[in-house]
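Q: Hand in one record:
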Amino acid sequence: MSPVLSEPTITVGNIALSFHRAAAAVTRRVLEAHGHRVNSVEAPHEQLFRLQDAGGIDVLVSAWLPSSHDTYLSRYRDRVRVLTPHYQPYCVWAVPPYVPEEMVREVADLTRREVAGRMTKAIDGINPGAGISRFSARMVGEYGLDELGYTFAPGTESGFVSRVERGVAAREWFVVPLWRPQYLNRLYDLRPLEEPKGLLGTVDNASPVIRLDALNLMNPDAVARLDSLHLGNDGVEEIDALINVDGFTPLQAADRYLAKHGHALAE
């Protein structure tokens, strides 16, 4: 039976990337199951945090802390509650599985003559506000890759996905700034490279962030359920694959995931 929606309307915001839509869809289902109507908003990374700071978003899904998004959240952290993380993401650089591991095991191997001679020098990323984009732009210089002609350029999510698809189809040697959770990991078996300088940040905690003034309007049971929900990287990737590979909407994908894994939404 569908829940009776009698609680105040809550605005949920997510970063405009598919795996963030996946986590936000589960959050929406939790809120709806506890009587809330939900408005959904999405925006690029920094803009989304600015919207929450200005009061335009009640629940932000999700902040990657501390490495990727603390620089955005720190401006107003005293006015929000950060919940228990739903998953623990991290950033990597990765290559396709057909690039021999004995030749390319870590980022520094990209400078080896026999590797640089075959590797595509253009490194394509997602939008510039993403932590992985900030980190990758720095890495090109820190590892001396720019001296060999490597470049990093941010872009769109669709352009990033298309670039990976084309590269794998052509069995091209290329490196891609990536992260978990992301469905491309399981679809193409991309292999992460070791990065001993630590320029890609730490393993983050991906946590919902609720404005304190909105917290007072929310059903306490809904907040408790969001605070205890754990999707894990595998769970987010599973929902992300349902969206991007199987063609479900984010809400349909969330429903299928929740049904399969027994995450009951009602108390």
Remarks:
- The two ends are 14 Å apart (CA to CA).
- Residues 90-192 form a domain with the D-Maltodextrin-Binding Protein; domain 2 fold (CATH 3.40.190.100).
- The chain is about 40% helix and 20% strand.
